[in-house]
Structure formats: structure tokens, C-alpha cells
């Protein structure tokens, strides 16, 4: 009897973990986001099915190269629930990433999604870093047609080390994966983190911290 109880509890725990491991599941054919609603829910309220139109499921833009004339030399074109209301509750989204030569999609995390990326043009040096205490770098140079997986919520990056433009497409396991760019979050927060905290964390002097923060403000 005790063994059966342990087994039942284990199965319940697994079921609960599965239930909260991703975006909310559909209970109908679709739940197109009603962005005019003022009701706050985890996601978006469903638009009335009679008001749903084909445009709620369409995004046009991945054929257009992103503008990479910025400090990082990269541009992300997102197709998530903000651009495609029909993705609400679907648990998936996409992005196009363009890279100029030496362009970087800097170290960042997606707090709500695993990412799978494929290179369409050029080559990219990509990788992610495992959690503490190991902090192991898992990285590889990808060429056209290669696919790489970035586990959910781990710091990762993509860098075009070549002399030609590069393009990649990414799929993410959330309608709204979110993004936290490490350097921007740490050195560009508003209000700013104190010099004392950053100087101790990065083992540098306060003048160095001030200089870095100036790059993000």
C-alpha cells in the first residue's frame, strides 16, 4: 500500500510539473489575443471567435533584412504574440536574426522559452553557458543549414565572425519568450545598480563601472 501511495504521489508531481512547464494549453481551437481588453490575465483574453480574421494568424516581414547599423551589428525581427495575435496560448513563436560582419546578438536569456536556431546564410559562432557552479561554455561554429538548441533561461549568444552577412531563423517555445540582455540589465538598469555592488561583483574599480554604465545610458 505504501509503495502504491509513493507511486501515486510521484505521478501527481510529474503531472503538475508538466502542467506548468510551458504556456497555458488550448481548451478550444484558438484564442486570438484581444489586445483591447483591460482584463489582466496570464497571457491575453480571447477575442470573440466571430471577430477573428485571417490577419490574426499572419505575419509578413521575414523576407526583409533587419537594420544592422547599430553598435551590436545585429537585428532581431520578432514574430510573437505581439505581432501575431493568433499565437496566444499556442506556446510558440519565431524570430529572424540578421548579422552584419562581426555582428553580435549579445549574451541574453529567454526566461520563458527554449530556442532552436537554424542558419540560413553565412556562418555563426553560437553557444550557451550552463548554470552555477559549472558555468560551462557549450559552443560551436554553425554554417548554412545547421541547427542549434539553446536551453530555456540559460545565457546564450550568436556571433558572426565572418566577413559576409549572416541570417538565422529561431523558433521559441513560448508565445512571449521575453528577453533579458545581460549587459543591458546589469549596467543599464533604471535606476542604476550602485557602483559598490557592480564593482564588487565584477572585481573592478568604480571608475570602470561608471565608464561601462555610460555606454548603456
Automatic annotation (TrEMBL):
- Cite a GO CC annotation: apoplast
Q: Which InterPro entries match?
A: Cupin_1, Germin, Germin_Mn-BS, RmlC-like_jellyroll, RmlC_Cupin_sf
Superkingdom, natural source = Eukaryota
**Localization, UniProt:** Secreted, Extracellular space, Apoplast
Instruction: List the transmembrane segments.
Output: none
Stated family: Belongs to the germin family.
This protein is called what? Germin-like protein
Q: Which organism is it from?
A: Eleusine coracana subsp. coracana
Show the taxonomic lineage: Eukaryota, Viridiplantae, Streptophyta, Embryophyta, Tracheophyta
Its gene name is ga00766
Amino acid at each position: 500500500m505504501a509503495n502504491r501511495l509513493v507511486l501515486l504521489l510521484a505521478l501527481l508531481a510529474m503531472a503538475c510539473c508538466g502542467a506548468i512547464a510551458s504556456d497555458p494549453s488550448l481548451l478550444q481551437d484558438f484564442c486570438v489575443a484581444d489586445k483591447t481588453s483591460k482584463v489582466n490575465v496570464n497571457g491575453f483574453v480571447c477575442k470573440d471567435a466571430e471577430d477573428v480574421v485571417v490577419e490574426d494568424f499572419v505575419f509578413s516581414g521575414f523576407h526583409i533584412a533587419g537594420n544592422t547599423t547599430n553598435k551590436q551589428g545585429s537585428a532581431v525581427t520578432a514574430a510573437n504574440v505581439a505581432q501575431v495575435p493568433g499565437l496566444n496560448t499556442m506556446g510558440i513563436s519565431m524570430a529572424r536574426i540578421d548579422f552584419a560582419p562581426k555582428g553580435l546578438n549579445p549574451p541574453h536569456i529567454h526566461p520563458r522559452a527554449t530556442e532552436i536556431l537554424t542558419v540560413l546564410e553565412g556562418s555563426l559562432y553560437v553557444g550557451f553557458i550552463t548554470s552555477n557552479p559549472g558555468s560551462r561554455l557549450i559552443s560551436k561554429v554553425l554554417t548554412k543549414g545547421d541547427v542549434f538548441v539553446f536551453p530555456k533561461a540559460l545565457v546564450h549568444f550568436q556571433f558572426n565572425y565572418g566577413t559576409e552577412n549572416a541570417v538565422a531563423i529561431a523558433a521559441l517555445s513560448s508565445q512571449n519568450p521575453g528577453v533579458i540582455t545581460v549587459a543591458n540589465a546589469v549596467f543599464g538598469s533604471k535606476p542604476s545598480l550602485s557602483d559598490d555592488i557592480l564593482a564588487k561583483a565584477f572585481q573592478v574599480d568604480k571608475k570602470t563601472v561608471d565608464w561601462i554604465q555610460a555606454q548603456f545610458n
